[in-house]
Design brief:
This protein is 42% helix and 18% strand. It has 372 residues and is α/β, with parallel strands linked by helices. The protein has 2 domains: 187 residues, 3-Layer(aba) Sandwich (Rossmann fold); 165 residues, Glycogen Phosphorylase B (Rossmann fold). It is globular. The two termini are 15 Å apart.
């Protein structure tokens, strides 16, 4: 039996994010395919205990200074992997996870890099410099680097000078959802935005767009749903979003803007949604949540950022410019006024993405691991 260690700083749903969910689901699929899987992860003392259907080894961390805590985890994770002695270690290297550098050369390493969109924004920051250094070292150490889209591959070749022959493009990710239309008529026009609370996810854009439509749409509600951000500044961003929501609700004397933090089960929110919005302004390598909403047969509005990752086009989603709440509001109003047409478009999209399954992800990695 092939032994595989899966290393990820965050573990779904202890940490609610796309790369964390990917590693969690991958572990499940490899376990079901007959691999001996050991997850290697961490939790801070105020977080829930991570769980999995396979074995987990968890580091309990107290230090919350990002660079320090990340370094300590990387050294611990590498030491743990070397002690476990798996045949292959699959590492969630999205955040520049350094563990592969210290993993024994006898163990083959596959790095999974969700995206490197940070290079498009904070190019001169210290954290960006460290991540660039880390990602180059990680890519050099790894036998294979798996990325979700050709967009991420091209960025890695151009910006990080990674050997293109080492990069494997998955081309898809699994989608959680019923893949059938789910409509809950609750008397409201519910707009749902599911994403980690972080500036690049654009919750502030959703709120500004909602202000513009609240006077026009009958019984509107905005739902901002997601996990806490992983960076220190994300906590401040979340508090700012909460403050804006309270301001709107006081102005209208009703709970028009609702915020749900650290939600594990998104089924309720996708079910009540009349449409979903994803106005990200950058740092997206794929985009699981737009596809999850489509899996419920709901119209979706995304920023142009997601066209770069090739997960959507005008055939399956409504696309607006990034960082533009006016255009987002106009598109929401268009859908509101032409909802039958929007629903028809969403149903066609649902059929198109029904091929995206986690079992296919598992089969892809099974083939890759066998080749190593």
């Amino acid at each position: 039996m092939t032994k595989v260690a899966i290393v990820s700083r965050g573990w779904w749903p202890t940490v609610i994010g796309g790369s964390e969910k990917f590693m969690y689901r991958l572990g499940e699929q490899l376990y079901r395919l007959g691999y001996e899987v050991i997850g290697v992860t961490r939790r801070f003392m105020n977080q829930k205990e991570p769980k999995a259907i396979h074995r987990l080894t968890v580091m309990n961390q107290r230090v919350k200074i990002p660079l320090v805590s990340s370094y300590l985890f990387s050294r611990w994770a590498a030491k743990t992997v070397n002690r476990i002695k798996p045949d292959i270690a699959i590492v969630n290297s999205y955040w520049g996870e350094l563990a592969p550098i210290w993993i024994s050369r006898e163990i083959k390493v596959v790095s999974v890099i969700h995206d490197i969109g940070f290079l498009e924004s904070r190019k001169n920051s210290l954290s960006s410099f460290i991540r660039v250094y880390a990602l180059r070292k990680i890519s050099s150490r790894s036998e294979a680097v798996v990325v979700p889209t050709s967009y991420v591959r091209d960025m890695m070749v151009e910006k990080l000078k990674v050997d293109e022959g080492k990069i494997a493009v998955l081309g898809f990710e699994g989608v959680d959802g019923p893949f059938k239309p789910v409509y809950v008529d609750n008397g409201f026009f519910d707009i749902v935005h599911v994403a980690r609370f972080s500036y690049n996810k654009g919750q502030h854009i959703s709120i500004e767009a909602f202000r513009k439509i609240a006077e026009v749409v009958d019984k509107p509600r905005l739902w901002l749903v997601g996990g806490r951000g992983v960076k220190g500044r994300d906590e401040g961003y979340l508090h700012g979003i909460l403050s804006r929501a309270e301001s709107i609700n006081r102005e209208y004397g009703d709970d028009l803007v609702n915020i749900a933090v650290d939600v594990e089960d998104l089924d309720h929110y996708y079910s009540i949604a009349d449409l979903c919005v994803f106005p990200s302004i950058g740092e997206e390598g794929y985009g699981l949540t737009p596809l999850e909403c489509l899996a419920y047969g709901k119209p979706v509005v995304v920023s142009e950022v997601f066209t770069r990752t090739s997960i959507v086009d005008e055939d399956i989603a409504y696309i607006v410019p990034a960082s533009n709440p006016d255009e987002l509001a106009k598109k929401i109003l268009h859908i509101y006024r032409h909802y039958d047409s929007a629903r028809s478009k969403a149903l066609k999209a649902m059929e198109k993405i029904s091929q995206y399954s986690w079992s296919r992800v598992g089969e892809y990695f099974d083939h890759l691991l066998r080749s190593l």
